């Protein structure tokens, strides 16, 4: 099998007011179904290694986890090479009900923005209140970054992980880089 | 700039995260209906000055549709409710009544 | 009415400009008129003018809830063109464009018509094909347009960036006799001419009800009393639905805010009108030097004359792509107008379910260019019950499925 590569080959920009790194490839599985269904919750927990989160939350640990995406959709995060096995397990666990699991790992790009001004960089691009206390680790937010859809969460108090479509990876990297360019501090937070 | 709350995922965000879907609670008339009903369904719109019930989609978010009650003159948003509702909930109607006494009579 | 001329200017210069009269009388409403036109914007005033000029009907009142020309007539970006694909549209817009050519002479009022030429940029293969098709259709309709290549575009518009970051300029649809006019002057010129024919232009007169008997209109109620009429013309753009509601019928219309903005004034840099419909921005330079910029419509119904903030960003982004020098400009003013958009994005000039009530609306985002043609056709419709210019624009087309298939998807600037 060919070697998996991330969209931008792990490009990074460390010169700005926050560090920007493309990470991955990461394993991502979209799971759609009735989230109140016990079988769906169990399957998600087995595949993601964490409990199915509450509305707009994420339960993540390292590269693994489960994120709430919409009232009928979860995103399962795992190591890229573990996806085939987890898919098989999911299919087995969900075989009795109406649900859908799809491997979307190759359709996505993942970025990490870190540093004391990471909030500021994201706030320039997304119409989201990123004030400390309003947005904290454990929350999941689907929104837009400038002109494209994206989702992000915080892995710690100064680090964001951002997921976007692979086709707009370069655009998102450029956006982040411009939003973090040296001298562009706003000192809002 | 509108600030809307998605009824499906609970996010409150400004309008660029959403996409407007036009007047709510239209009854569909399809093949076999009369010309008048079909015209009414496809083209005729209330277009009121004042309270308007409309559909929105959380396009850059959870992707779900929901309903919003809004004033087209002041852009005041009265609230949002489920996309599966056939009519606005009574609780919302009375909240609008508080803000716009007598508006129901004008409709 | 005193004739405006170079001699009049010279004479008044000698006496410190003390001899000028009001351009139109500040009329009080009479008890009854043959025709009442609701809405003293360009379309309403033009209708009244041609009722008098072409049909001798001068017992006419034009009533206006605000001030004359204070709605979309005073809020648009003044672009005049007639390069439409479908025959009925080309006919009415070309009629309008040709009337603009002689309007200053006809009205004895300088409307500053400037046939500087309009380019609609083709920035995708689809647009290239679409505009070539339009140019061929225009040739058959007797409308002079031409599809030009990128070199010619650059020649006409030196400040343009042909290689755009998203969409390169592949050519353009060029109408050399399109252009701009002074929008306020169009309303003022028509008002002056109407007043001179004995018509009453009544401002600050808001219609509060439409009165009818046995399905036939008898008059209107206003904040300045009841006024009787034989025929009623409703020409109120974004507020058409509201007036139709008073008269007792519904319209296939939704009202949204459309934005425009102008920059600080700069030296002459672009002497044609450029419309970039794919990235969505259009721009011309006014005589004052301001860049006049057309923006986007809100996605949702509203009656606020300002529009959403993010459209400014979208519009300016499109223009910076197309004209990089715009990035150094400051924007001076921004405003919005309430445009009335129909299901097929083409206007309605029609009889209505109420006898002797006529409606002229649905011009959406592009009504200014049509003012004289619309007035000409609508006056004929009101006087004779039928007009070749307005036949295709009846309300019944939404029931019968005879839509005017201009590129509907655009919504703005089709």
Automatic annotation (TrEMBL), chain A:
InterPro entries: SoxG, TrmE/GcvT-like
Signal peptide as annotated in the record: none
A Pfam match: SoxG
Protein name as catalogued: Sarcosine oxidase subunit gamma
Automatic annotation (TrEMBL), chain B:
Gene Ontology molecular-function annotations: sarcosine oxidase activity
Any one Gene Ontology BP term: tetrahydrofolate metabolic process
Listed InterPro entries: SoxD, SoxD_sf
Upper lineage: Bacteria, Pseudomonadati, Pseudomonadota, Alphaproteobacteria, Rhodobacterales
Pfam family, one: SoxD
Source taxon at top rank: Bacteria
UniProt source species: Sulfitobacter aestuariivivens
Gene3D superfamilies found in the cross-reference section: Folate-binding superfamily
Name this polypeptide is given: Sarcosine oxidase subunit delta
From TrEMBL, chain C:
Subcellular localization, as worded in the UniProt entry: Cytoplasm
Pfam families the UniProt entry points to: DAO (PF01266)
Entry annotated with the keyword Signal: no
Cofactor requirement: FAD; FMN
Sequence ranges assigned to domain Rhodanese in this UniProt record: 35-79
Catalysis performed (reactions): sarcosine + O2 + H2O = formaldehyde + glycine + H2O2; sarcosine + (6S)-5,6,7,8-tetrahydrofolate + O2 = (6R)-5,10-methylene-5,6,7,8-tetrahydrofolate + glycine + H2O2
Enzyme class: oxidoreductase
Keywords from the named record: Cytoplasm, FAD, Flavoprotein, FMN, Nucleotide-binding, Oxidoreductase
Amino-acid biosynthesis in keyword set: no
Molecular functions per Gene Ontology: nucleotide binding; sarcosine oxidase activity
Enzyme Commission number: 1.5.3.24
A cellular-component GO term for this protein: cytoplasm
Domain of life of the organism encoding this protein: Bacteria
GO biological process: tetrahydrofolate metabolic process
Family (UniProt): Belongs to the SoxB family.
PANTHER family documented for this protein: FAD-DEPENDENT OXIDOREDUCTASE DOMAIN-CONTAINING PROTEIN 1 (PTHR13847:SF287), SARCOSINE DEHYDROGENASE-RELATED (PTHR13847)
Entry protein name: Sarcosine oxidase subunit beta
Species for this entry: Sulfitobacter aestuariivivens
